[in-house]
Predict the structure.
Amino acid sequence: MIGLTSLWINGRAAVAPEVNHRRAVFVLGKIDEILSWDKTKEQEKDTRFVELGEYLCEVRSKQYWRLEKLKSFDEFLEKHFPESRRKAYYLMAIHENLMRVPKQQLREVGWSKAVELVRVARKDGEDFDCATWLHKARELPKEGFKGELERHLTGKEIESWELIYFKLYKSQLPVVEKALEAAGLMLGTDRSRGYCLEMICADFLARANLAETEPKD
């Protein structure tokens, strides 16, 4: 009887739902189709995340994973999402929390912004203003949108930031890594590498300024 029950209610095992075999085969086939398509068209992977999240929720609630001779839904995710089960749960959260948002509009903002919208929907509950937040998701760049979201969730102003890229030779990497590690130990391991780099640069500038102000013989 392993795999036929997965829930416990008041200490008693709940009876597993009767599986609609035809529907289960269709849904499982759709999941395989989307995941296969996802691998071959990586640049367009966002466009079917809404559909995939909906199907995954149905597999969990109807226990379609039993057709694949699996013991649990987690085992189903391990099989179909070997690289990241977390993404599967994100997609399901989008479906469960953003049902009021038209699917086409969710597709337009993309799955990464939709995941952020879930945080607002959970916090605001019935007061969630999906139209306003969809507009922000569409119009703002990713980091600007996350800043708006953090201000709404925490009430705090978030300092803007940007990524800086520069080339290092392999021979230089050990020196840089060692300096960042030493700074982390001095400043606290909870500090970001960006903060550690800032402090290293500040120390260099302080020494340079001191050398300029020292009297010359």
Q: What stands out?
A: Residues 119 and 168 are 38 Å apart (CA to CA).
